[in-house]
Amino acid sequence: MSEPAAVEPSQEPARPRFDVRTVALVGLFVLLILFTLRLARSFLVPIAIALLLDFLLSPVIRGLRRLRIKESIGAALVVFGFVAVVGGSLFLLAEPAANWLERAPRSMAVVETRVKRLFRPIEQIQETARAVEEVTRTPAQSTTEVQLAPPSLFQRVTGGTLALISTAFTVIFLTYFLLAAGDLFMQKLVGVLPLFSDKKKAVGISREIEAHISLYLSTVTLINLGLGLVTWAVLAAAGMPNAALWGAVAGLLNYVPYLGAIVTTFVIGVAALITFDSTGKALLMPGIFLGLNLIEANLVTPMVLGRQLPLNPVALFVGLLLWWFLWGIPGALLAVPMMVALKIFCDHIETLKPVGSFLGP
After folding, report:
1. pLDDT at 209
2. pTM, 2 dp
């Protein structure tokens, strides 16, 4: 009688062990990084802006070097030209912006009155709820509120202006030094790394980040410039005062995905309600911009930008909210290029490839 054949154990692949301590350490490390980014934002924001400008303008410096212009001279020419363009634009728009800011406090009462007409039923419900709360409140529940005096307008304006000037000078000088140094920092980084494979990987990551961010920023800048000019022309034809200012606002805020268009529509709507007596004509102005933005976002940008933005919409929106929380408005403006740089970095590191895959389309 033959013996039954021995049953071989099933060759199942070994599953990786779930290490709770490793997950906890990674979570604590991520929280520490986020806390540091938020705590040191006044120090890190100028550095981030300067690095992005270095990625954007480095190809120009290399082009000037092929014309036998030294990096220090080429960096001075490029930075001076950039500052001249930005400063000239701000100078031309400063007077209409100041006039609108001066009129805003006095004109907001008009806007509030006209908006209340649209939301009168909701306001009546809120007033009824407040009346019920006052009636049902007992004397023991009444509290004395202590209000601290807010800072004066002079303190807010001068404090914000000084901080803005300090940040601008830091960005200008740091951008110049980065451009004038050329590949010096990359050479030092490559010299520190011990293995040839690490040196090659560092150069590859740096060059790919520079290529993607430079191409993305230059393309988006041209798109936003076109949107600003078209917004200026169409609003001016529709009779909107200071249309150049609103075109500049539209072009600048369009660097912020999703939220920029919403804020621009709101700002143009408020300005139109202040300007026009007819509510219909006032609502036409933000409607015009909203139509232009829909054309830009759904036709122009996908056709021109194509696959140059290697991020999926969900990761992009979450990253936008995260950088807005960490760094405020500068974080929202810098969110997309920093997310692109993070994805490229993760794609080149074996242990971080799942993160890069999650960020990708």
Report:
1. 77
2. 0.67
Mean pLDDT of the chain: 76
Structure-block tokens of residue 317:
């929106």
Which parts of the chain have pLDDT scores under 70?
A: 1-19, 101-161, 183-199, 306-310
Q: What percent of the chain has pLDDT over 90?
A: 2
Tokens of residue 53, six digits: 């400008």
- The CA distance from 112 to 99, in Å, is 20
H-helix segments, the chain: 20-39, 41-66, 71-118, 120-136, 153-181, 184-192, 196-237, 243-253, 259-275, 279-295, 301-305, 313-348, 353-359
Residue 279: name the closest of 113, 99, 109, 97 by CA: 113
3 state SS of 299? helix
**348: part of which helix (H) or strand (E)?**
helix 313-348
